[in-house]
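Why do we care about 3D structure at all? Because function follows from shape, and shape follows, mostly, from sequence. That is the central idea of this module. The next example makes it concrete: a single protein chain, its amino acid sequence, and then its structure expressed as tokens.
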Amino acid sequence: QVQLVESGGGLVQPGGSLRLSCAASRSIFGINVMGWYRQAPGKQRALVADITSGGSTNYADSVKGRFTISRDNAKNTVYLQMNSLKPEDTAVYYCNLAKIGVEYWGQGTQVTVSS
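And the structure:
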């Protein structure tokens, strides 16, 4: 079992920045993908960005150019740097770890973009 613990959410004004972190409880071996998803009230959970163990990244169109995903394999941690935040980025953000045959989720962290 792997526990994922997110941090870094909060309230920010439009145009501001936040950095989310997600730490895994133990080392992650083998091919895997770590990612961030978000779920706004009344909407389905959707992919924001993900990054493979090899460093390849993928972004939702709505965040391209504003968000950057990165990972530190030595710290078993994935980050999401969010810049130029918009009210429509408001959601609960969830960390995800996917390996062949298994998937883990964090508990979620709230991001609210409002003036």
